[in-house]
Amino acid sequence: MLRVYNTLSGKIEKFKPHEKQKVRMFTCGPSVYRRPHIGNYRTFLYEDLLQRYLEYLGYDVVRLISLTDIEDKAIVEAQKEEVTTKELAERNRRIFTEDAKLLRMKGPTYAACMMACSSTAVEETAKLIKALLNEGYAYYYTYRSRRNVYFDPLKFAGFGRLSKLDMDRWPKKKRRFHRDTYVGTRWNRGDFILWHGYKKGDADHWDTEIGKGRPSWNIQDAATITKYLGRSIDVA
């Protein structure tokens, strides 16, 4: 019997997948605006060991490793190096794959393990955001000529439970965060961006059912999971 720590409940519980003997496993992979560092590989090696152990127990494991190839940092780095974001991501993706082989990880070199860039799930991103808009959890707001979409955590009951956020400290005055991530700040207390609206001159954008633009870092994992593993996963 495998027992694991449940972050949400704070207890050690018996592991029970949604489907008998089948495990859908998600690994949040590297942001490929730069080559992965040793701290990244520590995470990937741990999850590689977990995959091996689950298979040893007789589970059929399907694992997805996501690569974040479109985000603010990737765009800035690509401009700095005078290459496209696609060229930048491909170079660092190859480095990651080669390093995984050197570390003898099953990783993206293994048949039961998929590796996918977040840019391949833009259609799923748009569908998720549209659903959030329809349910009133997200909304459009124009900032510096961009018609962005933001998520309002106060509209979603239970937001912050997983990370043990004290929602009583949430600001009463409306605040919006327009970038994907902020240095040194894990959680920005306010409405975070889901979709960067198109602005003339943007090299990276898609034309979708919610408008032109690109997905934010904040929703890319959910969209990639939905496309490749479905709406339910067992390990993340």
Produce a short descriptive summary:
This protein has helices at residues 38-56, 72-81, 85-102, 122-135, 217-228; strands at 3-6, 11-14, 22-31, 60-68, 113-117, 138-143, 146-151, 176-177, 191-197, 206-208, 211-215.
Walk me through what this model shows.
The chain has 236 residues and is α/β, with parallel strands linked by helices. The chain has 5 helices and 11 strands, in the order E-E-E-H-E-H-H-E-H-E-E-E-E-E-E-H. The protein has helices spanning 38-56, 72-81, 85-102, 122-135, 217-228, and strands at 3-6, 11-14, 22-31, 60-68, 113-117, 138-143, 146-151, 176-177, 191-197, 206-208, 211-215. The strands form 3 sheets. Strands 6, 7, 8, 9, 10 and 11 form a 6-stranded mixed beta sheet that branches. A 3-stranded parallel beta sheet has the order 3-4-5, with helices on both faces. Strand 6 and strand 7 form a beta hairpin. The two termini are 19 Å apart. The mean pLDDT is 92.
Task: List the defining traits of the structure above.
236 residues, alpha/beta, Rossmann fold, 2 domains, six-stranded mixed beta sheet, three-stranded parallel beta sheet, 5 helices, 31% helix, globular
The CATH topology assignment of the largest domain is Rossmann fold
Q: What sequence of helices (H) and strands (E) makes up the elements?
A: EEEHEHHEHEEEEEEH
* Average of pLDDT: 92
Q: Tell me, what's the shape?
A: globular
Major β-sheet profile: 6 strands, mixed
Helix content: 25-40%
CATH class of the largest domain: Alpha Beta
Number of discrete domains:
2
Which class of secondary structure composition applies to the elements? alpha/beta
Q: Number of helical segments?
A: 5
